[in-house]
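Lab notebook: predicted structure, single chain.

Context: the supervisor wants predicted structures on file for every construct in the current expression panel, including those that have not yet been purified. This is the next one on the list. No modifications to the sequence; it matches the entry in the shared construct table.
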Amino acid sequence: MKGFKFFLASLGLLLLSSNVLADIYPNKPIKLIVPFPPGGPTDIVARPLSVLLGDRLKEQVIIENKGGAGGSIGADLVAKSAPDGYTLFMGTVGTNAINGSLYKQLPYDMTRDFTPIALVATAPVVVVVNSSDRIKTLAELISEARAKPETIAYGSAGNGTPGHLTAALFESTTQIKLRHIPYKGSAPAITDLIGGQIPLAFDPIQSVLPHITSGKLRALAVTSKTRSPLLPNVPTVAELGYPQFESTAWWALFAPAKLPEPITKKLRMEAEKVAQSDAFRERLGNLGVQPNTDFKESLANFQTSEIAKWGRVVRDSGATID
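Prediction complete. Output recorded below exactly as produced.
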């Protein structure tokens, strides 16, 4: 009987300490590590997230940009940080789903070294051609590529980027062969597409939307499960005959591994509320990035499925970065 009472007392103390931990967190500014330079897509998503999350937590969330090695430098910094809730990570499909297959020696483990908090935003890749190109539809692109394997070149922001791997997934799904031309970033690839040096590109919507709007580029399809609200007349690859096809860039909040559960729960609750808010949607504006408002699936499960999917794509494409 005494043992049972001791157990109940210990359990009560544990619950009390957990509640106290959640109540006092945070009591100083929080760092949000963005693993890419200022002004890029990840930074653009992180800025409003940091402000709105800080408002909800009643403490400053300060962004620190730590770019390099496809996001691996920033990711490794967070992986080696104390799991106290004061260092968070703006993870991406690259840093937390692709890099483990792409890099031969990654300094961190994409799952074991992190505590998943919440998926906050997604964006499709767009299949685009020059507006004056003879190819008008995705069906025409596929038909020509089947007739002339490896003759149609496409540009991407670089080897192993979402655009490149989306194209590789598209090739395997549609059973065609294209010729990849990797650039050092989206800007030079899109410049060459507009200039007529290449006929085709796969690139995230943020990079190509202004040129589609201006009439310089024609969008053949988006790669998300549903149409983009900013390109409502552009079909998805799925609705054009490939119902299982889906590829999106995504951004999620992570913390170092072994973050205490009370802090994890508090961060998850507040991050999900930010993602669902009108303010977050408005601050993302007309970039083509969509806040995630469906939290039925946990970030951990989503990440596991993404790692498996992109691992297959990387292996099939042969893409590696030393």
